[in-house]
Structures are given as C-alpha cells and as structure tokens.
Amino acid sequence: MARAALLAMLAAGVARAAEPSAKQLAAAAYAAGTESFQNGDFRSALESFEKAYKLDPSPVLLYNLARAYEEMGNGERAIENFQLYLARQPDAADRAEVETRIRVTLKMLERAPSTERGPAVPSALVAVASEPAGAAVFVDDVRQPGEAPLEAQATPGRHALRVELSGYAPSTREIDVQAGDRAAVSMRLVPLPGHGLSGSADAGAWQRPVAYGAFAASAVALGLSGLFYARASDAADEADGLRGEPDARGALQEDFDDAQLGMWLSVGGAALLLGAGTALLLTDSPAPAPAPSASRAGLVFAW
To answer: How far is CA 72 from the centre of its chain?
Structure first.
C-alpha cells in the first residue's frame, strides 16, 4: 500500500512538472501571433497577442497589439496601445518611431470621412483620487486638467494611470475599462525619504547646518574653558605668593572660584552642543539612492 501511494505521488509530481508555465504558454501564443501577423491574418494575430498579454503582460506585446490594430484599420485602439506601450516602456529604443506612428494615425483619423470612421466610440469615466489629495494625474502620459480628486475620460481598453505630487514617489497603475464604465481609483502616495508628510521641502534640510553650527559653538565654548582655566591658574599662582596677606588671598580666591565656575560651565556647554550636533546628524535622513534602471526586452517581433 505504501509503495502504491509513493508511486501515485511521484506520478502526480511528474504530471505537474510536465504542465507548461504561464510564461511558456504566453511564448507559444506570441509565436502563433507572430506567424499570423506575417501571413497577413491580423485578426488571429490580435487574438494570440491578447492571449499572450493576459498570461504575461510584457510591454512588447502592447506594441504588437497596436500594430495588429493598425493593420486592421482600428486607429483608435492602435493609438491607445501605442501610448500605453510608451507609458510602460518610457526609455523604449523605438520611441521616436512609435510617436511618429501615433501622429500619422491621428492625422488619418482627422482626415477620414465620418462614414469611414464609423460611430463614435463611447468613453469610460474614471474618478481618480490620491492620498494625499492634490496630485497631478496622467493618463497614458497625458496630464489631465486639474488635480486629484478628478474625473477623466478614457476610451475603452487598457490605460496607464499615474499620479505625481512633490515630495512623494510617483504611483502608477494599469486600468482596463469598458465603454460606459464609471470606475473609481484611489492611489496612495508614499513620501520620499527626507521629506515631510505634507510633501513640503526636505524636513531634514535644516538639521545639517544647525548641527555644524552646534559643532562651531562647541569649539568656541572649549576655547573659553581654556581661557577660564588659564585665569584660574594665574589666580592660584598669585595666591600662593601672598600667603601672608589674608585679604589679598581672599580676593584672589574669589577670582579663582569665578574662573573655575566659568571653565566648568564652558566645558559642560561644549559637551551639550557637541552631543546635540551629533544627534542632529544621526537623525538626518540620507538622500535616496538612485534606483537601478531596469533592462528592457527586445521589441516588435523579438520578444
């Protein structure tokens, strides 16, 4: 019985290992779409690219979806996917070519007779809120009028949504809307290191100059303690030379006591200033390290 159970577990493990991963299924769908595109079957290519994108949402597939829509004569959807591709791949090597395709397609849409354009595509309404409020809103890299919270219109399909606010890291999200949708999106912004929660100027910018000022004042206090020490030493030496004159020694004793008090107060103040300056430097937030640039995959039909 134990041997049979072990064999069953091994067989199940082999079966799971033999199942293709989502990445492999996406690659197969992509290859099928590429072949259909090259054979001129753009509708089948579009279906295959859509399937591949659902399995593995690579920015490259957005370009291929746009090209399929372009060849099918659907300029609106082609522009939508081209813009989303550029938003997802901001340093694309073919950005200039894609922007040219967008401009040409827009001109073709403007010049096309209304009968060729077909009925207007109903739009979706997206309500965008940010936390904190007041962020700039971008849809497919296009700045929307006003500040969050606001409502923006979008054509049906996928769009790259981004909000930006000074002192906070930008927040991005991809949305997929259908015609007539009324979607609500709330995006939370994370403060950058060294910035206050209000997004104002660097909250730690004052700490460094104040700390350096404390160090300078500490050095001055130490210098004063040296002067008081020298004064106390002189008073002690003079008092030793006047042992037979009690009144004069009493006056010198007062000078000695005053100088000694000044010396210890100066040393204490120097220590406090040094400690305060050190604490300010230790609590100052360091500048964020630059994020490593992500490597970009090959484009078009070299996924």
So the answer is: 37
β-pairing verdict for 190-191 and 168-169: antiparallel
How far is 159 from 144, CA to CA, in rounded Å?
Answer: 13
Q: Rounded to a whole number, what is the distance in angstroms from the first to the last CA of the chain?
A: 49
Q: What is the pLDDT of residues 139-170, one digit of tens each?
A: 888 888 888 888 887 888 888 889 999 999 99
Integer angstrom CA distances of residue 176 from 28, 62, 66, 78: 24, 13, 16, 15
pLDDT tens-digit map of 188-209? 999 998 655 444 444 456 777 8
Same-domain pairing of 152 and 225: no
Sign of the CA dihedral with 128 first, then 90, 48, and 18 last: negative
Strand partners, 124: 154
Token pair recorded at residue 26: 């996406």
Report the alpha-carbon distance of residue 85 to residue 60 in Å, rounded. 7
166 in Cβ contact with 189 (< 8 Å)? no
Q: Do 23 and 56 meet the contact criterion of CB atoms below 8 Å apart? A: yes
The set of residues, in sequence order, having a beta carbon less than 8 Å from that of 228 and lying 6+ positions away, is: 259, 260, 262, 263, 266
pLDDT tens column, 198-246: 444 444 567 778 878 878 887 887 788 788 788 777 767 766 666 656 6
Asked if residue 298 is part of any domain, the answer here is: no
| pLDDT tens digits, one per residue of 62-120 | 899 889 988 888 888 888 888 888 888 888 898 888 888 888 888 888 876 654 554 55
Q: Give alpha helix (H) positions in the chain.
A: 2-18, 22-38, 42-55, 59-72, 75-88, 95-111, 114-117, 207-240, 246-283
Tell me, what CATH number does 51's domain have? 1.25.40.10
Kindly report the pTM of this predicted structure: 0.43
Picking from 149, 112, 153, the residue whose alpha carbon sits closest to that of residue 129 is: 149
Residue 132 is predicted with a pLDDT of 92
Domain of residue 84: give its range.
Answer: 20-117
